[in-house]
Amino acid sequence: MIIGCPKEMKAGETRVALTPEWTRTLVQDGHEVLIQKDAGANCGFHDADYIAAGAKIEETIADVYKKAEFVVKVKELQAGEYDLLQKDQIVMAWFHLAEDVDHDMLHAMLDHGTVGLGMELIKLPDGTRPTIKPMSEIAGSLAMLEAVKYGLVDRGGSGTLFRKLSGLPAPRVLIIGGGHAGVNAAEIALGLGLRVTIVENYWKRIAELRYILPGVEVIAWEDATVKEYMAV
């Protein structure tokens, strides 16, 4: 199969769907891989890295779409990509059609006879979603770091420093939900020496969290309890 990886067109998007290492794996499995010029530059991957992995470099995004049977990207299709779509071509990306339907994009795919695979819908036999987990880990970690920033007075916060200091009680952090994002937020908070509480709705997950995060207080969701913790 001819697999193409274009450079992301969405403003502010710096990721790339294929690394040189995964490119090498695909080539070794017999696929032909096309990478748009500078597609991985913002991630620190150079065209030479992809060439060394066995890929071919295409000058333009149009070249990638014209030749590829399977296009793999990160974000949903942008307006500038609609007319590049091919009949029976497969495009895999984070479409999120179940959350916020982009009707123009959807109609462009239907009009061109293009098959879309939502990366967020990939599910393994054990029920886990391998593409969701790393995204949630990043989001949870950044959420805690953002909370530290917005606790400062010049950011509209109360002036609380979310860090344990000698001789002072550690600030308390309440995390709603113990999924991948919540766990990673808790790990960052623990690293800062904070007192961490996770509120979770499912008893099975509560038991899991108490096992994997022994330094965290894990409680079941009850409106009165959550209000009490938030009032502290």
From TrEMBL:
Gene Ontology terms, MF aspect: alanine dehydrogenase activity
GO biological process, one term: alanine catabolic process
Domain Alanine dehydrogenase/pyridine nucleotide transhydrogenase N-terminal residue range list: 4-139
Secretion signal span: none
Membrane spanning residue stretches: none
SUPFAM superfamilies (alphabetical): Formate/glycerate dehydrogenase catalytic domain-like (SSF52283), NAD(P)-binding Rossmann-fold domains (SSF51735)
SMART domains named in the record: AlaDh_PNT_N
A single Gene Ontology CC term: plasma membrane
Keyword entries, A-Z: Oxidoreductase
Protein name (record): Alanine dehydrogenase/PNT, C-terminal domain
Taxonomic source organism: Anaerotignum lactatifermentans DSM 14214
